[in-house]
Amino acid sequence: MSYLKWNNLIANYFFNEAMAGREVLLFVDESLINEIGSKIGEDLNGFISSINEGPSWVNTHRNHGICRKAFQTYEDWRFRKKLRYPPYIGYLALFILAGYVEDEHYSKIAYYPKLRTLLGENEVSGQYPYFDRMISLWKDLEKWSVEDRLEELGRFKVRIRGKWRHVGLPLSQTIISSKERKDLLLIFNRAGIISSDSPDADTINRTLLEHGQDVLTKKTVRLLNGEDKNEHLQQALLELVNEELNEWDGSLPEDFVDSDSFVKSRIRICLNLNKVTRKATFSFRINSQNEIPSELLVFQRRGDLSLFNCRRSIDNWSTELKGKDGLILDSTNFNWLNGEQIEDLENRWESSLKGTPVRVFIEGQKYGLPNLVETARIEQGSRFILLCCNSYINTIIEWGQNSCETFGEINYTGVPNGWSLFHGSNPHESCIGITELTLASEIRIRLVDGLRLGKGNTFFRAAPPKILLENNKGNEVVLLNDEPLPYNKESQHWELIGNLPLDRTLTVRVLDQGNEIRRINFKITNSKISIRNKESFIETIGLHDECREPMNIGVNVYNTDIIPPDKQYPLPTYLSNEIIFIGQHPGQIYHWQGKAVAKLEWEPIWAIWKVRRRKWKVNFASTKKLTECQINKEVGNQKDLRYWKTVMCKMKKAIEKPEFPPLYELWESYLEVAKRV
Question: pLDDT of 162-189, one tens digit each?
């Protein structure tokens, strides 16, 4: 197989739509190369042969070392046509492969001999020729993923770790394997943490060691324990784990099966301070990594028969918890200091109130919620309210007076006995020993509230994003293409104004005392598709004008008169790799799992597709009018009727119903028949 085919297979493995907005870690070992090569009957030997051969425009330089070839592959590659990926990724994979160790210690001394051994060369001491020039390739890969592709296929970040400037580049990609990275979700679930807990580096480190001993390699555990004495690589690993936690949607690895597992979520206290009556009232909301279901969640307190309920509200927040009487629950009746847990056994949801002597509240507007909402930690440059157990009051007052711009006690009725309220702003130092008062060390920049095209950083013109800085000090300047952006104090966002140029890379830069500390790129595209007529559309996408296939162009339908009567319409298998098709008769069911071609003898009305574990959605899949899709009570297939009833009755709580009212009513009619058939 040619070098470019290997290059594209490896690149597509790491850079794809599933990685949009996430950091790409190029973990390469021999088993991965063999797995990728097996698709076309190749293995590691074939990969090494293609590396030595190189792409067509450099393979005549056989007397040049491998790094010289890699550099020539990189030079001016953007001017070469029909290259979907940077053509040097195959060479970077080789460098990473040479740095991978199964269960040994990281070593600079072992790196260059292993690289030469892989290439079948004689061992020579010292750095490989031209290896110091490879940093240009690493930096260009970051530029391509972040600026050229706007993270649509993932975000690569150059990391030079430790004292090994050149070898540290490929080594930084081997800090955690692909399997370990996937199993991080299992560790998060075991520990019961979600991203809004904002755990600091020490907490993440302890969590991995406590809950990941059976899924992490000895090499990774050594790194976490500090045995390798490489703080830079350890910090890189913890940063990656934190990003995975922030991206986690609450689902577990597909190969993990545990019928007893619960969806983990967090109870957050909400605070309303009535400045007229000087009364404080406290309530609860559920905050989850998972999407909260639209159905009513009914929780029971552990060790208690009391029932509480809530529904989905905004993003990953619920409505305020209510009791059986329909009144908002008074959260002062719960144990704030030691924490509590509530469960919805039917929906397999578990929510915990963390026990802590100090709680931090910020304006709920940041999340689109009213009043004040509990947050896991304070941030630099923020205004906050503290709820403090009186046994910690002296520590809190001393910290607030010495480490905040403003700080003082506030008096409201409704605060439980043994607790006190304080207000503060602009904290600049952490309070040692109290997690909630620990400041994060780095600023994060996020694009929020816009309507994205896919999962990258391209947004529709009709709904551009807002700029959010997390853990900022308050004196930063935010620029868009070197022009300052206005700050909205109420929403705590920097807002884009004016007519932004379309389909051009826009750069947001964050400056602190004139020095750039963060940047992010995005693009605005038109919300409308301009199609003048059928002919221009056919010319644009490369079809022939005499094409007589049925087609939709905008709202217009063409060539419907030539549809053969026995034509089988393509099934919507693009929705997921696991879909259950439901027909118009009870018993008409087909479970498609992505491997075989989906062929049915009847036309499906519904496609129930798997979103993630215990999460399904139902789509209307028929070509008929809705009035022609009413369920026919005559059993279509007696053999499959039991399975059909299982899906329609026992899985219905896991299936998200259609939002469009006519489809919702039609789906409900199918469920009603399933109860009686």
Answer: 556 677 788 778 778 888 888 888 888 8
Whole-prediction pTM: 0.64
pLDDT of residue 541: 47
Cβ burial of 27 (10 Å; 0-12, 13-18, 19+) is: buried
- Calculate helix-pair angle for 66-74, 135-143, nearest 10 degrees: 30
Using CA atoms, how far residue 533 sits from 325, 342, 537, 552, in Å, is 60, 59, 6, 12
CB 571 within 8 A of CB 581: yes
| Distance of alpha carbon 242 from alpha carbon 201, whole angstroms | 8
Please name the helix (run of DSSP H) or strand (run of DSSP E) that holds residue 595, with its range, or none: none
Dist. CA 487–CA 484, nearest whole Å: 9
Per-residue burial over 584-607, b = 16 or more CB atoms within 10 Å of its CB, e = otherwise = bbbbbbbebeeeeebeeeebbbbb
C-alpha 608/C-alpha 647 separation (Å) is 10
pLDDT in tens, 305-363: 788 999 988 878 999 999 988 999 999 999 999 999 999 988 888 899 999 999 999 99
Q: How far is CA 343 from CA 35, 297, 300, 307, 415, in A?
A: 42, 9, 5, 10, 27
Question: Distance (Å, rounded) from C-alpha 552 to C-alpha 531?
Answer: 12
Cβ neighbours for 436, distance < 8 A, ≥ 6 positions apart: 356, 358, 359, 360, 376, 377, 378
- Residue closest to 20 by CA, chosen among 173, 179, 150, 143: 150
| Tokens linked to 139 | 């930096």
Token representation of residue 137: 């390739």
Give 95: exposed, middle or buried? Use CB within 10 Å, 0-12, 13-18, 19+. buried
Residue ranges in 59-104 assigned as alpha helix (H): 66-74, 89-99
